[in-house]
Specification:
The protein is an alpha/beta fold. It has 5 helices and 7 strands, in the order E-H-E-H-E-E-H-E-E-E-H-H. Strands 1, 2, 3, 4, 5, 6 and 7 form a 7-stranded mixed beta sheet that branches. The structure holds inosine 5'-triphosphate.
């Protein structure tokens, strides 16, 4: 873990995601003094995400990012597990939206599958794995989860992806209806972030 000491003095970080919603949320959680880069700042291609778990895919992305940029890299592999659909789409959450990343389509797909089972309000979890990789090829993964349930119709314009159909336990509003800072206080991404917070210097 000692190698991670360099995070306290690091001035540049690549946030290796092409998803603007994720980029924003990750950047807002991290120290504001650091300069953040996107994959396109390094003309990076997307690595093949052929892992079988959130951890494996997050690691593929962060190691690829750190190697391509030669700076510290943070990646995020995340998704929604819908219990009545045997935890699908899980690591395939982005892929359910098709090549055009159309989340209306992905949400329709969830609707049709749950409707068939007459379980529109299935329990669900959002899962996020954050991975930090150093240019020397070292990486660590950190998982966060939030439990809740699915709701139809979709509600709210905040957030991204599946946010409009997910209500966290203890709340009445979907992630799409909650204010950005309310989601950021309880989300799967925040819970993963809490585990890495100690490696950074805030202020
Ligand atoms: P990168 O791989 O470039 O980071 P991606 O969107 O393809 O972008 P993933 O493979 O990790 O990333 O897919 C995760 C999908 O899960 C994402 O596209 C969202 O639709 C969904 N997801 C993850 N976290 C979410 C959140 O906080 N709110 C809503 N949907 C979320």
């Amino acid at each position: 873990m000692n190698k991670f000491k360099i995070l306290k003095s690091t001035k540049k970080i690549l946030i290796a995601t092409n998803n603007p919603g994720k980029f924003k949320e990750i950047k807002e959680l991290l120290p504001q003094k650091i300069r953040y880069f996107k994959p396109k700042d390094f003309n990076m291609k997307e690595p093949v995400e052929n892992g079988k778990t959130f951890q494996a895919n997050a690691k593929i992305k962060s190691l690829y990012g750190a190697k391509s940029s030669n700076i510290v890299c943070i990646s995020d592999d995340s998704g929604i597990e819908i219990l009545e659909l045997n935890n699908q789409p899980g690591i395939y959450s982005a892929r359910w939206a098709g090549r055009k990343k159309n989340f209306n389509l992905a949400i329709q797909k969830v609707y049709k599958k749950l409707k068939k089972k007459n379980k529109l309000n299935s329990k669900a979890n959002f899962v996020c794995c954050l991975s930090i990789a150093l240019p020397d090829g070292t990486s660590r993964e950190f998982i966060g989860r939030i439990k809740g349930r699915i709701v139809f119709p979709a509600k709210g314009k905040n957030g991204f992806g599946y946010d409009p159909i997910f209500i966290p336990y203890g709340q009445k509003k979907t992630f799409g209806e909650l204010k950005k800072r309310e989601k950021q206080k309880i989300s799967h991404r925040y819970k993963a972030f809490k585990k890495i917070k100690k490696y950074f210097k805030f202020s």
